[in-house]
């Protein structure tokens, strides 16, 4: 059984020698060191969803990934994610899974089914756990499993694994991290039992160990068993490093083939995969386990480029790398890397907006930068039978997406923008600390425009007359938005700036600041002003800021009562709504933005009625009480209005015109919707 090759010889023919080297598992071999991590897509529960799921996984297998792990499927009823969640426990469940494995096995890719028992995270009244302790993120309180039920659950893992084998899977991944059932048993935080399944780590880890042992007995030696081990719980009452090692060795002895790294519980108050997390921020913990066991280890979390992945393997931090969302963003990630075309990869920006946010709202997952993800059978870009001459006005996300997809189909596209660079609002977003990944999206679109031979004309203001005169078959209007100015007395005071003044024009901002509007843009401006130096490229400082202890002095590896870096500015983030400030932000990332600003000392004020702006003062009312702030600047982030004038003028001149992006719907500058809208128009035009 081989481990990391640590081959540093990089060439045009072999650009990523470690990433692309095979991994010998003894009874089988993986074609490379890339594991596509588990992602629940929502297709698992849709009617006829497995046909779509097969197309989704087939695209990634065709794209060159070595090993795929599916989204979580429960081994029994009580372990389901939701009342109608996926389950593999009966022989009649097998047939639909065969469609997935058959599709993947058209290519030299292995696929493992993830067996996920949610325990107290199950969003239904039938949930169970080690002890009767309710999760802070779930309204349902679990029942404690009896010993008989524990042994039945172990048997269910083994039975489900055999059914997976019958369905054609090459193996299973037993989920033992992220705060799910096996993790709930292994940690004192949720295991308060006094019987043989609680107390010492040897007792607490028994559920996971016995599940692996029973599975190996049921499926035989020539079947991959991955165990997802929580190496870093990031919660109080989490395991110590010595307990992690003890469990890892026991899992190996029980018959696991590979150990995958699990980072953090879902209830942990530390970000682990958001875009603000430094790339490869947690590879150190996998490296720490290297040498403690003799089976391959997989590092994970915020690995989104082949260069980062190659460095992890070349430096001996793990034997494989797991990337999940990067394969939503680009199914051909591995093939592009192998062809030395990393600059053509559509990089995952870690935004969570179309993937995790959707899944946690029981919607189908997709990808902000790749709307075709999980829609492979529905959103297609076949070559057009009639090539058109199309003008696109506006090189923001919507215009860029449409231009590339339309050109891919064979249309002749010319892209215009009045600015000196492409990107639109992305050029402002990329400046926000923690959103540097937006540079990657603009790099990708720049390369695609070049490859697809889209003519790009910048610094060019177009009118309806000039466009009609040029004789385009269609004109796509993606002219974006204009900031809305709220009707507040004194709003024209020189101390008042718009967010464009700050982010685009870099006008100076004083030490005492009020931000009017606490939507996504308001939070972005607050973070821009509060965090002078981004920690995204400073992993050691980032770990310290979030209280993560690399020395692992106590369970969960958290530092208690650690101090946060405070902003030097006095910042007030204000909104008219009486709801919690930031309540409308992303479901899985909003808490991170709120925590970041709170830690930095930003004052968040809901329920504001603005009275008057006068020199160096903002007068307002909260809860019926008049208040006044002495300020150097007020920054307005109070929404946007769509720029539709050009579109209407084109319609008036009987020009075939289409409206997309912010020019169509300006609400919160939704890049996810804008890119999908551009793609959908390109697919049908």
UniProtKB/TrEMBL annotation:
Keywords: Flavoprotein, FMN, Iron, Iron-sulfur, Metal-binding, Oxidoreductase. It comes from the Bacteria. Residues 389-649 form the FAD/NAD(P)-binding domain. Its EC number is 1.3.1.34. Its cofactor is FMN; [4Fe-4S] cluster. Coiled coil: none annotated. The keyword Hydrolase does not apply. One of its GO terms (molecular function) is 2,4-dienoyl-CoA reductase (NADPH) activity. In the N-terminal section; belongs to the NADH:flavin oxidoreductase/NADH oxidase family. This is NADPH-dependent 2,4-dienoyl-CoA reductase. It comes from Thalassotalea fonticola.
């Amino acid at each position: 059984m081989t481990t990391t090759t640590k081959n540093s010889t990089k060439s045009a023919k072999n650009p990523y020698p470690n990433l692309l080297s095979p991994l010998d598992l003894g009874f089988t071999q993986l074609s490379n060191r890339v594991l596509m991590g588990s992602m629940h897509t929502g297709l698992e529960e849709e009617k006829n969803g497995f046909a779509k799921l097969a197309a989704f996984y087939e695209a990634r297998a065709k794209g060159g990934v070595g090993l795929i792990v599916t989204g979580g499927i429960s081994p029994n009823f009580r372990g389901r994610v939701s009342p109608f969640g996926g389950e593999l426990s009966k022989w009649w469940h097998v047939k639909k899974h065969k469609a997935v494995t058959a599709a993947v096995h058209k290519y030299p890719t292995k696929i493992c089914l993830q067996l996920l028992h949610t325990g107290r995270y199950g969003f239904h009244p039938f949930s169970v756990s080690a002890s009767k302790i309710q999760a802070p993120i779930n309204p349902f309180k679990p029942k404690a499993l009896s010993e008989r039920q524990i042994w039945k659950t172990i048997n269910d893992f083994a039975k489900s694994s055999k059914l997976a084998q019958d369905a054609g899977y090459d193996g299973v991944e037993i989920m033992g991290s992220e705060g799910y059932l096996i993790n709930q048993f292994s940690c004192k935080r949720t295991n308060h039992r006094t019987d043989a399944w609680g107390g010492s780590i040897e007792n607490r880890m028994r559920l996971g160990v016995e599940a692996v042992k029973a599975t190996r007995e049921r499926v035989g030696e020539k079947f991959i068993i991955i165990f997802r081990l929580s190496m870093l719980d990031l919660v109080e009452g989490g395991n110590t490093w010595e307990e992690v090692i003890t469990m890892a060795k026991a899992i190996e002895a029980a018959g696991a083939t590979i150990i995958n790294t699990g980072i953090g519980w879902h209830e942990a108050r530390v970000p682990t995969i958001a875009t603000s997390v430094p790339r490869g921020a947690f590879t150190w913990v996998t490296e720490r386990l290297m040498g403690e066991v003799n089976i391959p280890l997989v590092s994970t979390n915020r690995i989104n480029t082949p260069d980062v992945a190659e460095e992890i393997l070349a430096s001996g931090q793990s034997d494989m790398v797991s990337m999940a969302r990067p394969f939503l963003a680009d199914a051909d990630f591995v093939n592009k890397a192998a062809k030395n075309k990393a600059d053509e990869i559509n990089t995952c920006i870690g935004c969570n907006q179309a993937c995790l946010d959707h899944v946690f709202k029981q919607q189908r997952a997709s990808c902000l930068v790749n709307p075709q993800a999980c829609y492979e059978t529905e959103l297609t870009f076949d070559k057009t039978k009639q090539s058109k001459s199309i003008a696109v006005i506006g090189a923001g996300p919507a215009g860029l997406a449409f231009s590339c997809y339309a050109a891919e189909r064979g249309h002749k596209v010319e892209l215009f923008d009045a600015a000196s660079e492409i990107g639109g609002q992305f050029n402002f977003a990329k400046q926000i600390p923690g959103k540097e990944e937006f540079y990657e999206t603009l790099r990708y679109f720049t390369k695609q425009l070049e490859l697809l031979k889209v003519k790009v004309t910048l610094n060019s203001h177009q009118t309806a007359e000039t466009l009609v005169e040029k004789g385009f078959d269609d004109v796509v209007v993606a002219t974006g938005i204009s900031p809305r100015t709220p009707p507040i007395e004194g709003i024209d005071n020189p101390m008042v700036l718009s967010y464009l003044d700050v982010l685009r024009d870099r006008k100076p901002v004083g030490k005492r600041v009020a931000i009017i509007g606490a939507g996504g843009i308001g939070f972005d401006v607050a973070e821009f002003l509060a965090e002078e130096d981004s920690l995204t490229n400073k992993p050691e400082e980032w770990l310290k800021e979030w209280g993560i202890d690399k020395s692992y002095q106590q369970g969960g590896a958290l530092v208690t009562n650690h101090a946060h870096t405070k902003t030097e500015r006095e910042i007030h983030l204000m909104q008219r709504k009486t709801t919690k400030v930031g309540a409308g932000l992303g479901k899985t990332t909003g808490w991170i933005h709120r925590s970041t600003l709170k830690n930095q000392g930003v004052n968040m004020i809901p329920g504001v009625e603005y009275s008057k702006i006068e020199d160096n003062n903002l007068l307002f009312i909260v809860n019926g009480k008049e208040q006044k702030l002495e300020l150097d600047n007020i920054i307005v982030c109070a929404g946007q209005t769509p720029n539709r004038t050009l579109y209407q003028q084109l319609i008036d001149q009987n020009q075939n015109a289409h409206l997309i992006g912010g020019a169509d719907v300006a609400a919160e500058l939704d890049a996810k919707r804008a890119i999908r809208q551009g793609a959908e128009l390109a697919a049908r035009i």
